[in-house]
Structure formats: C-alpha cells, structure tokens
C-alpha cells in the first residue's frame, strides 16, 4: 500500500484528507513543516500533500528543502490551498509541485488526481530502471568489445585503433612492446592456471607503471603493448622499462621459483621510428627480437642498424644450439635458448639411446618461418603460419614421428626409421603441404635436417 504524508496546521483538514484516502492508502499526518521534514527523514513516503500556508515553515519552504536534497527530490508533491489565485498556483508549480488542489476539495477528485500522479511516478521509476539497465548493458558490451577478457587491458583491435588515432592527431610518444621470457616454462611447470596468473601479474605491473592518458593492451599470448602519450625523453623511457622489469620479477618470484622467467622490452619513439601503428609495431618488434637474442630480461631502443643484422640468422647454427639445449649441453644461464620441452626432451633422450643400441636411422629436423622482404609482421600472420605448419606436419607424417613447437617461429621434428634421402623427401612434402594450407605469400619456410648419431649423446 502506498504511503502518503499529509501536512496541514488545520486539524479538520487532516481529518478530512485522512477520511478520503485511508481506504486506498496508508495516510500519516504532520501539523507543521518542521514535523513534516522529521517524518520524511524517518521513512520516505510515496507522496506529500502539503499545505501552502502554515505558521513557521510554510509549504513552499518545505518543498524547496525537499527538492534540494537528493534523497527526497523525487517524492511527488501536491499543494493544498484555499487560495485560487493563478499566481499562487504558478509559484507552487515552479517549486516542482506535481499538482495543485483547491480547498475545500472533492474526495473523488482528490483520489483520482493522487492516483494519476502515483501511476505516472511509478512509470517514471520503471523507465529510469530500464534506462539504467540498458545503459549498463551497452557499457558492458562496449567494454567487452574493446578489452582482453583475461587481463582487462585493451585488446589488439582497440589498441591499434587508439594508437592510430593519437598518431594521426600528431601526438608524440613512446611505444613499448614486451613479452614474458620463457613463458612456456610456466605452463609446463605449474600448469595453465599459473600461466594465466602470470599474464595478470604483468598486466597489473603495466597498470602501475602507466597513467590514465596512456594506452595499455594485450596483443595476444604473452605479448603486451604500451603507448606512452607525450613521453619522448629517453631517460624517462629507460626508467619506465626498468621499473616494469623489476616490478614484474618481484611479483612473479614471490609466488614461483623460476629464475628463467623475466620480461624483455622493445622500444620505439613516435614519430622518429614510425608515423603509423604498423611501422611502430614492426620496429618495436625488431627491438624486442634483438633483446631476446642478447640475453633477455632487459630493454632495447630501436636504431635501425643492429636489428637488421639480427634478422638474418644462420638456421644451421640455430639448429645445433637447439639440439645442444635438448641434450643439456648448452649453458642456459646465458638465456639464449631457455625453453622447456617437458616430455619432448624425454622422448628425444629415449630415441637417442635407441639409436646407440639398435643403430636405427633417425632424422632430426628444424623448421623455421621467416618474413619475406619488408612485409609488415603481425601476430595473426605468424600464428596463422604456425598453425598451417603444424597441420602440414600432422598430415604428412606417420604416428611414430614426433614434433613440437620450439618458438613462435620454429618447429622441431623427429623422423623415425628414415635415412637422410627419405627424410628429405618427407620434409619437402611438409613444405609443399604448408604452402597449400597457408595461402598468403608473406612467409618463407626453411628447414635443416641432420641424421641422429650415437655420438651425439
């Protein structure tokens, strides 16, 4: 039942109003403006019937105080008065009154007016709730469309959009690309829940090292980007990069004991190193790649010369390093190939023992994906190419052959009971299948193949 507060200094009027409304509403009364405000504070009514002229605090003053207080401003107010002057009515309506009833009133007319006002007020509340719900839904959809579900940072598409907008507006700044060194080892050692937690730790670290005006996002996997707006000083960039690296290590090592896990960062300045997102990303990725190849757990500023020499690498040497790492001969403390292979390492060791005992013919292969020419590198392209390579391997090999991803660009393969000539034919079949599955022409797939010998052990 709706609750109505009647405020009037005339006891007869209070009795008459109560008699007219009590069968439909819960009616309470107050004989002064001061008492009315105390009643409202105790329990908010659904409507106030307010006498205009009362000793002390009159109806208009009570109405002003109610409208000024956010808690009471939406309570419907109906003025009661014996004054039929249009100016009085206009003044009451100006104060925010919902209606104006002349005394002496007709009970049926009063009931209908009050009922209409309460119905309109209920409809207004319902519409406001619907509007709030719809607004929240829109906000939620918008948030989900631009954020990464795991970390809550911006996703790749929105990150690229915002950085592009800022660069087009002439905003100068610094762009960081970073990833987690040896992140695969976290998943292999502690499981994917720990891997997700590690990604969130880095996301939290980035939030703590950025301002509201900066753009922070996750590109995918363990790769993140920051665009620092209006930050062009190299020393400031160095301090930020150092802070991110140190803070992440502190957070991570408080929960996990994996000294190989750290953060590497590639840094470019805008517009010096690029005037659009793709160019900035490409050059920052080169700087990151340089960091990864030179010890990790640090940062590198792109300068255009060192990085170009790093792009051309000897896959045969790379292959020997990978093989030595699997066999445990490489000094992993240098961080050059700190990758955990888990079960693959055990399989490799077992096969090597079989080769020593049974003189089996086994070939080991390292596939390497590289970018053709000056084609802009994008994460989706490399992921798509790796998926195509893995599918080509699956479609071209027997159940006894074993393979595993070594990095985002490389794949290791063991061909059982195959001599060098037959192994090469199988590998060529994989390459041919890869180009069938991967229809773009921006990737080059190369390989190295070696016969496994007992003396490798």
Characterization of this structure:
The protein is α/β, with parallel strands linked by helices and 457 residues long. It has three domains: 3-126, 3-Layer(aba) Sandwich (Rossmann fold); 156-310, Alpha-Beta Plaits, CATH 3.30.70.270; 315-456, 2-Layer Sandwich (Alpha-Beta Plaits), CATH 3.30.70.270. Helix content is 49%, strand content 19%. It contains 15 helices and 14 strands. It has helices spanning 11-21, 33-42, 59-68, 86-94, 107-146, 156-168, 183-190, 192-208, 234-253, 277-293, 306-311, 315-326, 343-358, 379-396, 420-437, and strands at residues 3-7, 26-30, 47-51, 77-81, 99-102, 173-181, 215-220, 223-229, 262-270, 299-301, 363-371, 402-405, 410-415, 443-451. The strands form three sheets. It has a five-stranded parallel sheet with strand order 2-1-3-4-5, sandwiched between helices. It has a five-stranded mixed sheet with strand order 7-8-6-9-10, sandwiched between helices. Strand 1, helix 1 and strand 2 form a beta-alpha-beta unit. Helix 7 (183-190) packs across helix 8, helix 8 (192-208) packs antiparallel against helix 9 (234-253) and helix 14 crosses helix 15 (420-437). It starts with a strand and ends in a 6-residue tail after the last strand.
